[in-house]
Amino acid sequence: MAEITFADALNQAIKEEMRSDESVFIMGESIRGGIYGVTGGLSQEFDERVIDTPLSENGFLGAAVGASAVGCALSSSPTQASCGWPWTSS
Questions:
Q1: In the chain, helix, strand, coil percent, each to 5?
Q2: What are the two backbone dihedrals, phi and then psi, of residue 76, each rounded to the nearest 5 degrees?
Q3: pTM of the model
Q4: Using only C-alpha atoms, what is the Rg of the chain?
Q5: For 6-88, CATH number?
Q6: C-alpha to C-alpha distances, 13 to 7, 62, 84, 87, nearest whole angstrom
Q7: What pairs with residue 24 in β-bridges?
Q8: 8-67 pLDDT, tens digit each
Q9: 8 A C-beta contact, residue 81 and residue 87
Q10: Predicted local confidence at residue 70, as pLDDT
Q11: Beta bridge partners of 74
Q12: Of the candidates 36, 37, 46, 44, the residue with the CA atom closest to the CA atom of residue 16
């Protein structure tokens, strides 16, 4: 079995899902440029389904919940895990 980095494994998994399902899209901060290597090459292959967002994790994670509620499949890419803490404290 070939050894790959965690970032490469995530990249391959996202590409596999996006190839197999047209409703899958990804959004996050600076992802069109391939931040941390995880989203590298996605914008070249899936242009309209790779969405850069402003610096607002809570905002685009809320959009992700809404998209899921209407049947879209989504991979959201927050750059900071702290954005989920306000939701877990209520």
A1: 50, 15, 35
A2: -100, 145
A3: 0.70
A4: 13
A5: 3.40.50.970
A6: 10, 23, 23, 27
A7: 73
A8: 888 899 899 999 988 888 888 888 877 677 888 889 999 999 988 887 777 877 888 888
A9: no
A10: 83
A11: 25
A12: 46
